[in-house]
Specification:
Blueprint (H helix, E strand, L loop, with lengths): L3 E6 L3 H12 L4 E7 L9 E2 L2 H7 L5 E4 L6 H10 L3 E4 L7 H14 L3 E3 L8 H9 L4 E9 L2 H4 L15 H14 L5 E10 L7 E7 L7 E6 L7 E8 L4 E5 L4 E4 L2 E2 L7 H15 L7 H12 L1 E5 L5
Parallel strand pairs: 1-2, 1-4, 2-3, 4-5, 5-6, 7-10, 8-15
Antiparallel strand pairs: 7-11, 8-9, 9-10, 11-12, 12-13, 13-14
Helix pairs in contact: 1-8, 3-4, 7-9
């Protein structure tokens, strides 16, 4: 079977670290080109993604790994050109944009895949199975890391549409919506915003659900200076504890680590993308993005000292 020719639009660190090796490691895919503002990336490398679309013969799919704000325009033109589209998280800057893209993909009979890479840890579906059908007594999410380590020198994260701490925090929400046995809603949020920024550096969120009889709390913070804490601790009404650590990579049930194995987050993303293309289907789950939007709608905010990254 001839491999699917795919290009990367927005070739930066995440594309170099994860997308390129995952594409090259999948025998059903052929990396045909890349584009970035610098022109760096797998050859042929372009500085103008539109020129790339015009110039590369036989292109069938694209992976869009730009910051979220420009993704809608790029994805819309790619779908209109008949390409299958994979979106890095978060899929777009707004819910309206991703919903419009989903409609266009359906009309054009092309695949649109809004990816949530943390869900592709093998421990995440195992945690969902452990919690299935349970009433939840409590859930405690802690997603704490150092912005200077993960976004050094990047100022777009503080602009409107840059998501701030929700850029990594949406990973936690993507896991929570995948494993929680019911719908989650935002009851309230406190957003901590550095002076001069438009997006928060920290957020304390109160969630609620009809399937919960206790507290559901989420703490996102970009001010941690030593190590990372990416944990989701869930207790059921029957007293069982399900704990995901290391961003969803490890699973503990009642204190005992569970054996899980998989091919890795991004290789599994591309396995799924190929599967969706073969079946001419899309996968667009907006629940994590909706929770972020709801935090910004109902949350209160406080201003703190400016941050220098």
């Amino acid at each position: 079977m001839r491999p699917i020719r795919i290009a990367i639009i927005g070739y930066g660190k995440i594309a170099a670290d994860q997308h390129e090796p995952s594409i090259r490691g999948n025998p059903r895919l052929e990396l045909a080109a890349s584009s970035s503002r610098s022109g760096k990336g797998p050859k042929p490398a372009f500085t103008d993604w539109r020129e790339m679309l015009r110039s590369v013969d036989g292109l069938e799919a694209v992976a869009i790994t730009t910051p979220p704000k420009p993704r809608y325009e790029i994805a819309r033109e790619c779908l209109a050109a008949g390409l299958h589209v994979l979106l890095e998280k978060p899929p777009c800057a707004t819910l309206s944009e991703i919903e419009d893209l989903a409609c266009l993909a359906d009309a054009r009979q092309r695949t649109l895949f809004a990816t949530w890479h943390a869900r592709h840890n093998a421990a995440v579906p195992a945690a969902a199975q452990a919690l299935a059908g349970q009433q939840i007594e409590s859930m405690e999410i802690k997603w704490h890391e150092d912005v200077r380590k993960w976004h050094p020198g990047q100022t777009w994260i503080w602009d409107a549409g840059g998501f701030g701490v929700f850029d990594p925090g949406i990973n936690a929400l993507s896991i929570a919506t995948a494993i929680f046995p019911g719908s989650l809603f935002v009851a309230g949020a406190k957003l901590t915003v550095p002076k001069g920024a438009q997006t928060p550096i920290a957020a304390d969120i109160v969630l609620e659900s009809a399937e919960s009889c206790g507290d559901l709390a989420c703490s996102l913070d970009w001010r941690r200076t030593e190590g990372e804490e990416w944990t989701i601790r869930t207790r059921t009404a029957t007293g069982s504890e399900v704990l995901l650590t290391e961003g969803g990579a490890r699973l503990f049930v009642d204190g005992t680590e569970q054996p899980v194995s998989g091919i890795g987050e991004y290789p599994d993303i591309y396995r799924r993308f190929v599967e969706l293309i073969d079946e001419r289907r899309s996968d667009v789950d907006v629940r994590p993005l909706r929770l972020v939007a709801d935090c910004l709608l109902v949350g209160t905010s406080e201003t703190v000292e400016p941050i220098d990254v």
